[in-house]
Design goal:
- This protein is mainly beta.
- The protein has helices at 56-68, 131-138, and strands spanning 14-24, 27-32, 43-44, 47-49, 71-84, 90-102, 112-117.
- Strands 1, 2, 3, 4, 5, 6 and 7 form a 7-stranded mixed sheet that branches.
- A hairpin with a 2-residue loop joins strand 1 (14-24) and strand 2 (27-32).
Length: 143
């Protein structure tokens, strides 16, 4: 146990994450991790860890405010993926459509944030957990 009484994360623990497919027209917002982060410079969708007591939607609203400075109107969940990484970690990802948000985009944590055309998504090096979703998005299957 950690000193604060909370258990320390164990290697291979399952992390629950909510992510946003923020869309406008035929584009989606994508974010590139910083060079100092794990899986450096790979692309992902904004979002983050679901904290205890939060719904996935509540976590997503909080994370989008923290990461890119917007208040999102979270739409329907369009994908749910569980991915096991080679290093032993695992992630449970829920992806939600966001078509409306308030505020100006403000990149607070990423190397880059940009709007990408759905059909161009396979050109970017996404996190391994996102790659199946990228193929579906690029082929027009989800949105």
């Amino acid at each position: 146990m950690a000193d604060n009484g909370n258990p320390k994360p164990t290697p291979g623990a399952l992390r629950f994450v909510a992510a946003a497919l923020i869309v406008r027209g035929g584009e989606v917002l994508i974010c590139q991790r910083r060079p100092d982060q794990p899986m450096a410079l790979q692309w992902e969708f904004p979002g983050g860890k679901i904290e205890a007591g939060e719904s996935a939607e509540q976590a997503l609203v909080r994370e989008l405010q923290e990461e890119i400075g917007v208040t999102a109107k979270v739409g329907p969940r369009v994908a749910h993926i569980r991915h096991n990484y080679r290093h032993g970690g695992a992630v449970d990802l829920q992806f939600f459509v966001v078509r409306e948000f308030a505020g100006e985009l403000d990149n607070r944590i990423y190397s880059q944030v940009l709007w990408a055309r759905l059909e161009d998504l396979p050109r970017y090096e996404f996190l391994p957990a996102d790659r199946g979703l990228i193929r579906e998005l690029a082929s027009g299957k989800l949105l």
